[in-house]
Amino acid sequence: MPDLYSTRWLIFLVVGVLAALGCSTDTQQGDASGSLSLELVLADGIVINSVSWEISRDDMEPMSGDINTSAPGSTASVEVFGLLPGDGYLVELEATSEDREVTCRGSAEFDVEVGVSTGVMVMLNCKLPARFGGVRVNGKLNVCAQLHKVVVSPLQTSVGNDIDLSAMGNDEEGDSITYAWSNAGGTIGDPNAPKTTYTCTEVGQHEITITISDDDFEFCMDDWTVPVTCVEGDGGDLCDGVTCEGDGNECTETACNSTNAECETSDVEDGTGCGDGICMSGVCEAVPDCTEPADCDDANQCTSGDCIEGMCEFTPTDGASCEVEAGVPGTCDNAGNCVGVTGNDPAPEFNTPGEFGCDTGQNDFTRTLSGQTSEVFSGTVSTAQGAGEFYVVNPAGQETFGTVPTDPGTGTYSVEIPLFCGVQLVKLVWPETEGACVLVIEVTTTDCAAADIRLTLSWDSIGRDWELHLIKPGGRINDNATDCTWTSCISSSPDWGVQGDSSDDPSKDIDNTGPFGPENILLAKPESGTYTVMVEHWSSSGDPQSDGQVVINILGQPSIVLTTENLPPFSVWTAATIEWPGGTVTPSQDVFDCTASWSGGCTADIP
């Protein structure tokens, strides 16, 4: 026998809402909402403990839920809110009896309009067991309470004074209405009373909002917001009767904040007198040296002054140009001193390219050289009274100097002079019977790279072949892989630094085997570590002791001149060590007697 079906109607209420993006107002009315109460009872004691519902549409995720009707007095009721307006919605209901023998299903299509509660009749088809049954559905509609009147007066008052608040709501079914006032920037007398007061406690723009509900603010809510202004005034001062105690610091003050009646501590104005000084940022400090950088001037051309928290701080302008005295250029060192780079200049008063004071037969007073690190200068000075001097200086204050060998009979001379990269002055000076013969030439070298470390060695007429060495970190003298000298650096260079990169290899561009010198070694892009500068005195046994000097130029630093006297033959002078990076030069007068370990140079394991 076919199963019997019972048909029941169930009213399902849905509410549509309007979504607006990017729009807001100072006040807003509560959205319309609705509710649906359903009671589902079947005949003959058949118990329905649960009713399932689902709302769907093609462009949304389904909304669904279960209504628990198992407790005594429970009804099958549900409220659905939050559907966008439009058509094509489908609601589906399903109920099952406690003994799982009776099932009811139904569905219906519906449309949603903005702010309109849509009632939907859903036919539930209940499949019964072998006998007829019945179901009774009761629905209940709740209309939310709405605000009818809100009064806020006045809209502006002073701190400490009150604003009167009043609201009235209405509920169609006569349900009890709950009131809730909220705010920012003040206090409300009774937040749940229809009539109350708002007290301004701080200056500014505030908002007062009233919200009402007939279901304890679960779904049904209607609200309204009113902006108000609180200004300063003499009425209702919140600080009346408030006493604030200080913290004992004469550079701070404690006072009552009239906007909130709280004691607050703040710093007094910087510069306020205190004890033996003045207040700065809440602390009593000694009277400052300055208030701005212009106040910090120590009259030192090699320092830069700045005002830091009231105190002058001076920073050395390392490498900057300066004047040792009027017209005498110098370079600032890292201690703030102006180092005279013309201290070794034999003719400091002559600085213009050209010939002065004697006939040298020269007429080329400016030269431009490409890719060269040295140049041979030669000619005749008929009035010379002995050997001359050469002196080279560039705008950065780096200098080097040495002797110009000159034939005492003919006055002819020839000397290879080391050059800096860029523009420089080369001075050749010879003593005369009265005064000096000076030749000044401006030389510019192009297509060159400035050396980070430059060493220039020269010696007197007694010495026979002084030899200059630059030994890399961890190296030793006369080891061709680690020592730049005559055997390793003249026609080729050892591979230092980055393997295969010749730009960081040392070179010896000038080498001499007779008296005077000079010898010159260059190194760019040194690797980190301690370099050692050494000098050998090559000579035959019994030759006298000799004097000499090494000029050390570290890029960006003043030149350093190191001298030694009475260096014996077959001896090694450790002139200095150079720390890299930084270029710190540490001079030395250590002399090593290498007589017992001499074979084509010192073979001792030094340094």
Structure, described:
This protein has no helices and 46 strands. With 607 residues, the protein is mainly β. The strands form 12 sheets. Strands 4-3-7-8-9-1-6 form a 7-stranded mixed beta sheet, with no helix packed on it. Strands 29, 30, 32, 33, 35 and 36 form a 6-stranded mixed beta sheet that branches. It has a 5-stranded antiparallel beta sheet with strand order 40-41-37-43-44, with no helix packed on it.
Number of strands: 46
Structural class: mainly beta
The separation of the N and C termini measures 118 Å
- Shape from CA axes? elongated
Determine the strand fraction and express it as a percent band. over 45%
Helix content: under 10%
Uncertain regions spanning at least 5 consecutive residues: 1-12, 14-41
What spatial order of strands do you see in the largest sheet? Answer: 4-3-7-8-9-1-6
On the 0 to 100 scale, the average pLDDT is: 82
Radius of gyration: 51 Å
Largest sheet: 7 strands, mixed
Number of helices: 0
Give a quick rundown of the structure.
It is built from no helices and 46 strands. The protein is elongated and about 140 Å long.
List the defining traits of the structure above.
607 residues, mainly beta, seven-stranded mixed β-sheet, six-stranded mixed β-sheet, 46 strands
